[in-house]
C-alpha cells in the first residue's frame, strides 16, 4: 500500500463481556486518528450499534447538519453480542449517519465479518468525520498494531468505478493476493457519487467458495456519505481466533443458549419458510399468494408470472451447485445465498462471468416493480447494484416511479428518449444504468423519489399550464416514499398494521423497524385494532434492540419456536426471545428481563425521535403515507380487485349504508374510510407511546429515560410547546 498520510501505533483493548469500550475516531479533514475511551456507564445506557450511532449524532450534530457537512459522522458499530459464533446470527453491525435522502438519522444494518474483526482489533465502533482532500483508505491492522490513513490506490478505470471490483482489488493488493478469513473491508462504488442512495459493501472471504463475498448496508445513502467524505474503503485485519473472542462472562451459558436456539432453527425452519435452503426469496411465493408482492410500482400484489421468480427457480438456475453458508459462521439459518459463474447478458459488462451474492427478497420485489419476472435479469440487477454501490430498493422504487410517470403522461418520450413500458427488460435496463450514472433521464431518478416528483411536478406544470400543486398532488398518490426514503417491497394497503409499520418507522418506510405484514396478513395474528396498536409499540422496540446489540433479526422473526403457539401472543415468539435474553446475560454479566430490554430500547427509540424533531421530520405530517400505501391510488386499481374491495366496504361502512354503484364512487368511499382508519391508528399509537396528538413525545415520557434536558426543551420550543405540554 502507499505511504501513509498519517498512522499511529496502538495496542488493542481486550474484549470483556462483548465490548472493548473504545471508539476509533477518524477526522479526514485533518487526517487525525484518535482513540476514545468510553465511560463504564456508556454501554449500559446506549448498548452498542444503533445506540452508539444515535448518541454520537445527537451530541455532535445540530439542526443545520446535512449529509455533506464535515461534522456529519459516519459511524460503523456492532454491539456486545456480535462476534459470537456459538449463537446464530451474530455477524451484524450498523452504519449510521445523517442521510442525503431524509436529512435525518439513518442506520442500515449489514452482515459479514467486518464488525467482528473490528472488535478483535480492539474497537466497538468507528466514527468518521471530515472530508478528505484526496480519496483515501483507512487500515486497522491488529497484527501490526497500527492504524493508517493512506491515499486510495490508483487502479484502472473499470475497477475504480465499481464497488465490488474496487473492494476486491483493494483487498487483493493489501494481502498480496492471499485472501483469508481474518481480513474484511467496507467500500462503495461510483454510484454512491452519482446518486443519493449509495450503499456500502461489506466484504468477507468465503473459504468454501474461495472468493470474496459481500453483504450491503443498503438503505438511506450511507455509501453516498462515505464517498462524499472521500473515504474509499476501510480494511480491518486481526488474526486472533474469534471462536471464543467475545470473552463472555459465562461461556457455558452462552454455548447452551446458542445450542438450544440452533436446534430450534434446525427443527422449525424446514417446516416454515425454509430459509436455510432457499434464502429470503422464499417470501416471494407467500407475498404473491396474499397480494403483497409489489408489481408495476405497487399497483398490484399478484401476478401469475410471479412463479418465474419463486425461490425454487433461483435454486435450480443459480444456487444449487453449492449451498451458501450464510454471512457469518456459526449461523445455521444460512439464509445469505450466492451463485457462481453467472454470465452477464445485459449492461456494460455483458459477457463477463461473475459470482453474485443474492438475491434477497427485496431485490426480487424491486424487479417485479418494473413488471419483470425474469430470474436472470434479477440476478444481474442485484450484481450491478452492488457493483455500482447503490441500494436495490431505492433504485427499484425510483425507477418504477419514473416508468409510471411516463405512462401517465407526466414525462414525454422526448424527455425520456425511449418508451418505458412495464415488462420491457431492455428499457428497464437502460433506465437502470442511466440512473446509476445520473445520465439522461437518470439525472431525475438519481436523487430519489422525493426529489424526482418535485422536478417532474414543476416541469409538467410549466408544459401544461396546470398549477404545480395539482400536479404534485397527483404524483404523490403513487410516489412511494415518505420522510424522503423509498418504501421497501411490501404492499401495505391491505394491512393497517403494516401501514403503521411504515408510517411510524423513524428512518422512513423500511421494514426493519416493524415488519408486521407477514404476522398480520399471512398468520392473521393482529385482527383487532388494539392488537395492531400494541404491536406498533412493541415490535419497533424489540427490533431497535437487535440493531443495538449486533444481531440479525431473521432467526427470531422468521423461525417460529414450536412453543410460541402456547403463549398469549405467538407473534412475539417469546420462547425464542428468552434464549436471546439468556445469551445477553451470559455475555455481559447482566440480569436483564424482557421488560429491561424494552426500557433500554425505548430510550434509543425516543432519542431517534428527538433527532427527527430537531431535523424537522418528527411530527404527525411526516408519519402520513402516500395513498397507494393505504388504498388503490386510482379507480382502475380498485377494478383489479373489485370483489375484495366491495367486501371490505360492506364490512366497514356505517350500518345500514348501501355500497355505491360506480367504481369511481366506491373508490372515493374506500379512500375516505382508509384515511380515517389510518388517522385513528395514529391517535391510538401516539397515545400508547406517550406522545402528543401531533406525534411529539410528552415531557413526562422523556423524563422517564433521562432525555428531557435543555436540548429537548429547545426542540419543544421550536414547535411552540412548553414544559407544560399535556395534549
Overview of this structure, please?
The chain has 727 residues and is an alpha+beta fold. Among the domains are: 4-237, Aldehyde Ferredoxin Oxidoreductase,  A, domain 1 (4-Layer Sandwich), CATH 3.60.9; 273-486, Aldehyde Ferredoxin Oxidoreductase Protein, subunit A, domain 2, CATH 1.10.569.10. Helix content is 42%, strand content 13%. It contains 30 helices and 17 strands. Strands 1-9-8-13-10-11-12 form a seven-stranded mixed β-sheet. Helix 2 packs parallel to helix 25, helix 22 (529-549) crosses helix 25 and helix 27 (642-652) crosses helix 28. It is globular and about 75 Å long. The termini are far apart.
Describe the secondary-structure layout.
Blueprint: E1 4-9, E2 22-27, E3 32-37, H1 42-46, H2 49-60, E4 74-77, E5 93-98, E6 105-110, H3 114-120, E7 125-129, E8 136-141, E9 146-151, H4 157-160, H5 163-174, E10 183-187, H6 191-194, E11 200-206, E12 211-217, H7 222-228, E13 231-237, H8 251-268, H9 275-278, H10 282-289, H11 311-319, E14 338-343, E15 353-357, H12 361-368, H13 375-388, H14 392-407, H15 413-416, H16 425-437, H17 442-445, H18 449-464, H19 468-475, E16 481-482, E17 485-486, H20 496-503, H21 517-522, H22 529-549, H23 554-557, H24 574-588, H25 594-614, H26 635-640, H27 642-652, H28 663-689, H29 699-703, H30 710-718
Parallel strand pairs: 2-7, 8-13
Antiparallel strand pairs: 1-9, 2-3, 4-5, 4-7, 5-6, 8-9, 10-11, 10-13, 11-12, 14-15, 16-17
Helix pairs in contact: 2-22, 2-25, 8-24, 12-14, 13-16, 14-16, 18-19, 20-22, 22-25, 22-28, 27-28
